[in-house]
């Protein structure tokens, strides 16, 4: 089995994904998932290791649900940000609800580099991302 997207933010020319190895055990070791952040733009392409837990997946689910609710209510993006997974353990994403939506890939632990990727996400993106993440979490819980 190949890689599985944990989450993917993308517009027509840029994307940032968190990709879980789909092999045996799906990259989970001692409660931690091993994955990669994948950046693809016309300017930069990179892969960066990241680790997260089931609790981190729950945090991402909550963020996506809140964004989906705000989008359904027609709320204007307020510029609020969240770090996923929690900053300080490994590379992480800073997700900023703005127009355009901004994904910052931060690697303070190894390289000290931050890559900012602004995106024009399509309407309904958060609802679709939350649904995909829910299916992935169910698959991981089943151990398949």
Key traits:
144 residues; 26% helix; globular; five-stranded antiparallel beta sheet; four-stranded antiparallel beta sheet; single chain; alpha+beta
Written account of the structure:
The chain has 144 residues and is α+β, with helices and mostly antiparallel strands. Helices cover 26% and strands 38% of the residues. It contains two helices and nine strands, in the order βββββαββββα. The strands form two sheets. Strands 1, 2, 3, 4 and 5 form a five-stranded antiparallel sheet that branches. A hairpin with a 7-residue loop joins strand 6 and strand 7. Helix 1 packs antiparallel against helix 2. The longest helix is centred in the middle third of the chain and has 19 residues. The protein is globular. The chain starts with a strand and ends with a helix. The mean pLDDT is 90.
């Amino acid at each position: 089995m190949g890689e599985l997207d944990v989450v993917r933010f993308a517009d027509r020319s840029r994307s940032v994904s968190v990709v879980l190895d789909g092999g045996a055990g799906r990259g989970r070791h001692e409660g931690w998932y091993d994955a990669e952040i994948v950046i693809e733009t016309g300017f930069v392409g990179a892969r960066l290791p990241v680790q997260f837990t089931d609790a981190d997946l729950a945090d991402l689910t909550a963020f996506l649900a809140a964004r989906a609710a705000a989008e359904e209510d027609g709320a204007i993006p307020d510029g609020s940000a969240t770090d996923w997974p929690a900053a300080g353990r490994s590379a992480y994403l800073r997700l900023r609800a703005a127009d355009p939506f901004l994904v910052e890939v931060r690697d303070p632990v190894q390289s000290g580099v931050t890559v900012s990727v602004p995106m024009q996400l399509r309407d309904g993106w958060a609802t679709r991302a939350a649904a995909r993440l829910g299916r992935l979490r169910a698959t991981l819980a089943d151990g398949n």
